[in-house]
Sequence to fold (155 residues):
Amino acid sequence: GRENVGGTLRYLTRYEDTALTLAREALHSPAFRDADVARLKAQMLAALNMQENDPDFRAARLMMVQTFGQNPYAQAARGTPSTIKNLTAADLRALHKTQFSRARLLVVVVGDVTAAKAGRIADTLFAGLPKGQALAAPPAPRQNVGQTWYSPWQD
Fold:
């Protein structure tokens, strides 16, 4: 997403301890191995290449740029070929260190679970993350209501 990271943890109750232990380890100490990062970068570049041939994607990108101008929301949510190519495991470690904090959490729990147990699960997973600071609101988008944009198809 544009300013979020999401995840889902699904497990059978009988495997809860193992699932929570592994999820906590991934949240607190992600490996970001070079080989894994390279594989994911290749996947992301292939997906971007496919999107470039999708007229709906190109129209949506044009709309975001025209609607949001210099606002961060105008930037490509999944990056650009150059940003993805230049991304390193060290970049991901630094981002994790500065951005993963309790002040930026939104936790949603769904299932056959009490509020008390959901709280214990959240504490198990997220206790120990730095407190951090909430994100500042981005600047307001510019107002381009009632305008028409045209972008010729260029390969």
